[in-house]
Inverse folding.
């Protein structure tokens, strides 16, 4: 083929870059995150919605909350089990989950997600 | 046809390198602005738009001016302009690219930029400005590219291009009218609240744009084998003359309304710009410079022998660019915000980071312009050689 | 089956439209999901909020308390310089609040007197017209609201506002000078803003939704009864309507047709 030398060198470099994350991290499986519940959260037994739903959909729910509160002047959320909750990340969610670094951040950091909510919404003060 | 931009002299590559360096400096400074916020600019709570938006306004005008070449050729069969319509269209493309970039660097929250598409508000002139500017960009790219590649192949361009060309003519007027509407519909800004804002914008655009085109044509003549043509340049000179006379006339109309009516709200911004207000007079020397170059250019261009001589025409065009740039790219935006709604003065001056970012945007525009013109000139010299 | 390219494109286009529309139709036709969300009727529904400022009852001390209450409740930072400052409620002199009203023989008590100025929550707001993303809009209850989640920071609303009521976060408000902002954020139940968004008085939307008075009104009336009146302009018997009926009131730049809803009893 034409330019065989250049192509092979390019392929080696390309493959090297592509496979870099794998061999850089070899032998170091990162620990699966453990989200720690606060005593208050444990006592509540269930979040606003069941754990499975929250795991998959809390982002969507928060998005709907912010649209509802700010744009529709609708401040109360009716959960699946017919309870009414005040829609506020800072006031409602973080009241139980006040250990953000041991709860929210565990999964977020593991997945490399940096939600920008905290640019404005105030993180609860943690003691450690 | 892009490959035509890859063959050039050392001067060509050197020029592109200079531009790339400026783009790099602007980009790095923009990253600094992105992390620190717009507080690194000179804008303030009172003067909340500044250099970036002023430049956006100026270059929308330059973009609109492409129509001053297209209209005579396609609607009035002025065959001479056939040689340079592509130059007008490509200048429009480069200008709109700069406009888009100036908007983007001015946004406080650029990651949310697409909200204007996701959650449009039809009562907002900014929404319509985004639409007309992007459509105009698309029109000029499609038209220019197709006409040029047809010329390269020695064929006539396909019929549907003609339809687009006919659309682009009123569209060019619309982009600058909509941009003027950004300013002219705001009830609290007396400097801008005038019915002739769109007319002033258009006349200033049709003076500054063709003037810039003339200057670029003179450069093209020097650095390439393609000659835009003396007839073409002189005709553009005539267009520039009429447009600049109108531009100056419209401004004098504003002066009359403000100062004959003696309404303080109308007078104060103009007094600030030309004499200073409450002791604040940063812009005074600039505005009088603009006035001087504006009048000087009109005087020069009215005299036929001066206008016809390409050297003096070039000087007159430089005067026009200086005058219109200061008036529209600078005085217009700032004059609208001073005095503030409380009749207090808080002055504005661009900071160094603001200027470096702006230079990066200009360099991007010139880069696009250089590459597109390289292609156009290469195609045209080849086509001429073939004939 | 022989199908030319044009036919294929038409078919795919219709299928896509149907798919998109189909999903929407499904969500509309599947009840329960929508009803499950309790739409509580906000306490502000059906109202037309307005405010009266009783200038003679508002002296500098009271006004300072109002401003402090507002800025503390909403974590408004003190940036410390007039270029980048953020303010929702502030003092401005009579001459500058009502430019054009003052004259050579203005009564002593108005000469240089401070008044409170804030967003007028206009009936016909030019800022809401101007916003390209509807990040600011006029609610049905009259409040001109800000959606910080949607604002792209274009500042067109700031140019459009004839009252200079809006501020922009030129930098990160959390990085405002610490010596000027003790205990920032002052209200942990309310968010701060981020750099690059516009903000202004929101008529304490979160407070009136809970049946409370705006922070500034509460603060003022704690010192001088009746200094500021907040209420429903649509209710003919409300206190605010009574006050407006019985006293002469002016508004800022009313000739502009914006319909401001902040009334000054001078």
């Amino acid at each position: 083929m034409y330019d065989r030398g250049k192509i092979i060198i390019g392929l080696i470099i390309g493959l090297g870059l592509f496979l870099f994350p794998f061999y850089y991290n070899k032998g170091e499986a990162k620990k699966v995150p453990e989200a720690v519940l606060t005593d208050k959260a444990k006592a509540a037994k269930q979040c606003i919605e069941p754990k499975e739903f929250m795991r998959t959909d809390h982002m969507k729910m928060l998005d709907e909350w912010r649209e509802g509160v700010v744009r529709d002047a609708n401040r109360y959320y009716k959960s699946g089990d017919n309870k009414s909750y005040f829609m506020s990340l800072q006031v409602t969610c973080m009241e139980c989950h006040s250990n953000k670094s041991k709860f929210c951040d565990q999964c977020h950091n593991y997945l490399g997600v940096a939600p920008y909510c905290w640019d404005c919404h105030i993180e609860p003060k943690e003691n450690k | 046809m892009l490959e035509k931009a890859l063959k050039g002299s050392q001067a060509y590559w050197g020029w592109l390198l200079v531009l790339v360096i400026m783009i790099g400096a602007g980009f790095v400074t923009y990253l600094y602005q992105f992390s620190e916020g717009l507080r690194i600019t000179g804008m303030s709570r009172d003067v909340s738009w500044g250099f970036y938006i002023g430049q956006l306004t100026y270059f929308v005008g330059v973009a609109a001016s492409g129509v001053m070449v297209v209209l005579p050729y396609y609607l009035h069969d002025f065959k001479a302009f056939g040689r340079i319509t592509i130059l007008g269209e490509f200048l429009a493309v480069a200008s709109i690219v700069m406009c888009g970039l100036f908007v983007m660097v001015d946004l406080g929250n650029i990651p949310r930029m697409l909200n204007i598409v996701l959650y449009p508000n039809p009562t907002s002139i900014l929404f319509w400005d985004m639409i007309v500017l992007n459509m105009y960009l698309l029109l000029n790219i499609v038209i220019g590219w197709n006409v040029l590649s047809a010329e390269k192949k020695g064929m006539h361009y396909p019929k549907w291009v003609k339809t687009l060309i006919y659309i682009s003519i009123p569209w060019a007027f619309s982009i600058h009218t909509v941009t003027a509407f950004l300013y002219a519909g705001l009830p609290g800004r007396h400097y801008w609240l005038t019915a002739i804002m769109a007319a002033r914008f258009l006349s200033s655009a049709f003076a500054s744009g063709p003037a810039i085109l003339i200057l670029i044509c003179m450069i093209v003549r020097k650095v390439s084998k393609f000659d835009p043509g003396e007839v073409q340049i002189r005709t553009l000179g005539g267009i520039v003359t009429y447009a600049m006379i109108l531009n100056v006339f419209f401004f004098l109309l504003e002066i009359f309304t403000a100062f004959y009516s003696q309404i303080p709200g109308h007078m104060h911004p103009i007094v600030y710009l030309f004499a200073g207000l409450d002791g604040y007079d940063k812009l005074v020397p600039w505005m009088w410079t603009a006035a001087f170059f504006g009048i000087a250019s009109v005087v020069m261009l009215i005299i036929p022998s001066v206008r016809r001589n390409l050297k003096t025409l070039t000087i007159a065009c430089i005067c026009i660019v200086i005058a219109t740039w200061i008036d529209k790219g600078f005085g217009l935006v700032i004059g609208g915000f001073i005095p503030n709604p409380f009749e207090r003065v808080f002055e504005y001056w661009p900071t160094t980071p603001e200027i470096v970012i702006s230079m990066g945007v200009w360099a991007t525009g010139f880069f696009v312009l250089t590459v597109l013109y390289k292609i156009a000139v290469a195609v045209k010299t080849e086509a001429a050689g073939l004939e | 089956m022989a199908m030319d390219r044009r036919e294929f494109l038409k078919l795919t286009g219709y299928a896509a439209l149907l798919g998109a529309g189909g999903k929407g139709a499904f969500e509309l036709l599947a009840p329960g999901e929508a009803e499950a969300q309790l739409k509580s009727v906000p306490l502000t529904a059906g109202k037309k909020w307005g405010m009266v400022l009783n200038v003679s009852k508002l002296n500098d001390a009271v006004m300072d308390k109002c401003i402090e209450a507002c800025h503390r409740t909403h974590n408004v930072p003190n940036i410390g310089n007039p270029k980048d400052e953020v303010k929702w409620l502030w003092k401005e002199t009579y001459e500058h609040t009502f430019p054009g009203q003052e004259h050579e023989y203005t009564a002593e008590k108005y000469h240089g007197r401070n008044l409170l100025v804030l967003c007028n929550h206009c009936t016909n707001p030019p800022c809401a017209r101007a916003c390209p993303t509807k990040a600011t809009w006029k609610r049905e209850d009259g409040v001109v609201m800000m959606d910080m989640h949607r604002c792209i920071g274009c500042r067109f609303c700031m140019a459009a506002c004839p009252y200079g009521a809006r501020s922009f976060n030129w930098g990160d408000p959390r990085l405002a000078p610490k010596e000027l902002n003790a205990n920032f954020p002052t209200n942990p139940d309310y968010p701060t803003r981020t750099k690059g968004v516009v903000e202004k008085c929101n008529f304490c939307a979160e407070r009136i939704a809970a049946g409370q008075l705006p922070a500034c009104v509460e603060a003022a009336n704690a010192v001088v009864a009746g200094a500021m009146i907040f209420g429903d302009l649509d209710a003919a018997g409300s206190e605010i309507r009574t006050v407006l009926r019985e006293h002469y009131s002016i508004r800022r730049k009313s000739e502009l047709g914006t319909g401001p809803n902040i009334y000054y009893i001078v």
